[in-house]
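User: quick one, sequence for these tokens?
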């Protein structure tokens, strides 16, 4: 997003059946502290890249942590949204991870998911993860643009 703007954060649960509780970390980075338990809170006005985390808990007590970073870019501005199937985070279940690009998306990008543990692949946009231990598991997706493949908008 451009400097000095805000945006909505999205906590998407698929399939969206049942009820879920949301808890966003770092309430100070939200428009106001009352939004910390909303599904889709609004950020404060951003002047630099800002990471966000949300814990989603279902009615069975299963939970998952998802995180992403809102990028502030006044020149090229494409957005990476990293998500996970929040309601399937119990031990032994398969969780679909997703890196979705939007905005001014370049022609050629590569993906790197870190760490590789439990993932079906690390170099794709949408790997699968099999949960084998209790607790939180954090993944980072690095999206790299090949400079000579960048296509400027027409």
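Assistant:
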């Amino acid at each position: 997003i451009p400097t000095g703007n805000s945006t909505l954060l999205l906590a998407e649960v698929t399939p969206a059946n049942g009820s879920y509780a949301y808890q966003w970390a770092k309430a100070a980075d939200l428009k106001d502290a009352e939004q910390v338990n909303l599904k889709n809170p609004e950020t404060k006005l951003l002047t630099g890249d800002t990471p966000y985390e949300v814990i989603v808990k279902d009615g069975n007590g299963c939970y998952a942590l998802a995180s992403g970073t809102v990028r502030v870019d006044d020149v090229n501005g494409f957005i990476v949204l990293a998500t996970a199937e929040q309601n399937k985070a119990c031990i032994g279940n398969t969780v679909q991870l997703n890196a979705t690009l939007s905005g001014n998306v370049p022609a050629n990008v590569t993906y790197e998911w870190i760490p590789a543990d439990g993932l079906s692949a690390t170099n794709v946009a949408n790997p699968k993860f099999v949960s084998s231990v209790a607790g939180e598991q954090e993944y980072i997706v690095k999206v790299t643009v090949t400079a000579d493949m960048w296509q400027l908008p027409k």
